[in-house]
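User: what does the whole thing look like in 3D?
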Amino acid sequence: MFKPELNLAKQIIDKYGTPIYVTDTQTIKDKSSLIKNAFSNLNMKIFYAIKANFNPHIVKIIKNSGIYGIDAVSVNEIILALELGYTSEQIIFTPSNPSDDDMLQVGKLNILQNLGSISEIKRFGKMFKGCEISIRICPELGAGESKKVTTGNIESKFGLSISEIDKVKTICNKYNIKIVGIHSHIGSGFYNSKIFKQSVTAVCNIAKKFKYIKFLDFGGGFGVQYNPNNIPINLNDFATSIKYTINKFTKSYKHPIELRIEPGKFLVSQSTVLLTRITTIKEKGNITFVGVDSGFHNLIRPAMYNAYHHIINLSKQNKNKKLVQVVGNVCESGDIFNKKIKLNDPQEGDILAILTTGGYGSSMSSNYNLHNFAPEVLVTDRKFKLIKKKQTFEQIMSNFIDYK
Ligand code: LLP
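Assistant: Here's the predicted 3D structure for the full assembly of 404 residues, as structure tokens:
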């Protein structure tokens, strides 16, 4: 888990100010190796879920670390992946409620679409008769860090229910569609290989029903260690747990089968910290509020998912810990980074590092309260460079027409 030394943090802040995201190249390389090695016996192809962090400099590190492809959810994510040199075979499009225009644009780019509803399959089939697609199934078992990111359960909006599979076959016959992939993503942030294994079994069971399967895709969601006191997941266990099921399936299937996973947060989360400065300290209702110059416009995970992000006071090495609530500069009571965290002797002006913010941190930021996006810096071999500029007021306002 990356935490910059105070000296380095000071140099970065002296140059670019706070709040600022700081990402460590080596951590991304290490996570890439870890997941590649864990699944190497299964010959797994890894597609990075670019939604987790689409900073092109970060995606390039992932690409150069040997992660094979990109899991994209929007046309813009695909355009970026193509710009970064991925080929159409290295990209899979798993949209959520795509419009006809989305499917048309992506189809014209020859990128495989992973569709999760009868309506989408029909609409796509009408546009591209004789096409190949992959289908996203709902394995009817979900897992995730919060309800909002649990996707494999029957109540979630994602995927085709198992009872719809016969209907899918009829439609595919009608439009001469070949189903070449079966996909499932049970949710974001699971820590237990048991449920992952169950979803792999569900995918294999559906795949048996189709003749032209080329790949099975088990999605992403591998849990991140957000709290340094927790034990990280053991990816080898995940790989071992599915080996038997996969071998059984691949041996019985007539054609060779490729295996895929789509990690997002696992690859990037621990590589990044959000540095923010304490502006205001106050005591109220038995709580010590430590107010900082960032808020949920920069990092929405705690407010949105009740997610835990560990925070350290980089400015103080002493052990004079104080229990505080770290809150942001957005005008909402829910703008809380951490409700109960012990910080070393917090004082106004100190620099805090909010850890494990590389996944769904910057990529989910907004301009709420007309705050700027935070700039981003990349650290490689103890040297740093700016990889995303600080937004200006003029840039934020530039899309509003004739307002002056
Ligand atoms: N594949 C599909 C089809 C997905 O929908 C997702 C994530 C992934 C792969 C990658 O999942 P990951 O390995 O990153 O868990 N904003 C939330 C997470 C949303 C995940 C959405 N889909 C968060 O901050 O926790």
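In plain terms: The domain at 25-268 is CATH 3.20.20.10 (TIM Barrel). The longest strand covers residues 272-284.
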